[in-house]
Each structure stands twice: as structure tokens, then as C-alpha cells.
TrEMBL record:
Domain of life: Eukaryota
Xref: InterPro entries: Ankyrin_rpt, Ankyrin_rpt-contain_sf
Gene3D superfamilies, sorted: Ankyrin repeat-containing domain
Keyword annotations from UniProtKB, A to Z: ANK repeat, Repeat
UniProt ANK repeat ranges: 32-65
Name of this protein: Uncharacterized protein
Length: 135
């Protein structure tokens, strides 16, 4: 029988649900601080991600022992977009000072890194416009 984090890594929604019914909480973490949302995001298990994001106690910006959020460990744009829609911080820094875009680029996910970098550019443009309006 799989534990919570193995079930989440496997995308086993039924098993994760059973383990929650048995007393696990949405943000329960393994010894490295890795949660179900980290695991589901890392493997792009969209059904499980939706299930987790629908839970009232989910923390979309929960950090593991390295300071990584689920957005730091995701590997595809669709997962990243869903996490961002749920409130993930695209500019969050992990314990090494890396943003999710930095991590994506380091892991060889250039399209994801470019997408996340474009969000930073949009924020900078918006901030610049706000500054000009206040003058």
C-alpha cells in the first residue's frame, strides 16, 4: 500500500483521497517538506492538482525543505498556469535565491522558464506604468 506522497507522485487520486479520509491533511509533508501538491505538480497530474486545489486548506505556496514551492517543481506550462491561477507566486525565491523560472531553466525546461520570465516582465511593465501615473 502506498504512502501519501508516493500515491500523489503516481497520480493516484483514489488513494490520496482515501489517505485524506484516514486523517492526512492537504499540506502534510514528508521528511523533506514535500507535499502532495509538490508531487502532483512535478509530474503534471492535473486531476490530482484540481482535487488538491479545491481543498479549503491547500497552500499553493507551501515550501519544502529547499524552499521550493509547487511552482518551483512543475515541469510544464499548463501546470504552471493552473498553479498561478490558484495564487502561486511566480517570483517566489527558494533557499538558493532561485525563482521558479530559474529552476525551470536549470532543469532544462526552457519553454516553461521563458513563460515564467514573461510574467516578471509583465509585472515590471505594470509597475513602471503605475509609477508614471503617480507622478
Amino acid at each position: 500500500m502506498s504512502n501519501l506522497w508516493t500515491a500523489a507522485s503516481d497520480g493516484d487520486l483514489d488513494r490520496v483521497s482515501q489517505l485524506f479520509d484516514a486523517g492526512h491533511a492537504t499540506n502534510d509533508a514528508d521528511e523533506m517538506g514535500y507535499t502532495c501538491l509538490h508531487a502532483a505538480s512535478s509530474y503534471g497530474h492535473r486531476d490530482l492538482i484540481e482535487f488538491l486545489l479545491a481543498r479549503p486548506d491547500v497552500d499553493v505556496n507551501v515550501r519544502d525543505a529547499d524552499g521550493d514551492t509547487p511552482l518551483h517543481v512543475c515541469e510544464d506550462i499548463l501546470t504552471a498556469k493552473r498553479l498561478l491561477e490558484a495564487g502561486a507566486e511566480h517570483a517566489a525565491l527558494n533557499s538558493l535565491g532561485f525563482t521558479p523560472a530559474n529552476v525551470a531553466r536549470e532543469e532544462g525546461h526552457a519553454f516553461l522558464a521563458d513563460f515564467l520570465d514573461s510574467l516578471q516582465s509583465e509585472v515590471e511593465i505594470s509597475d513602471e506604468r503605475d509609477t508614471k501615473r503617480r507622478r
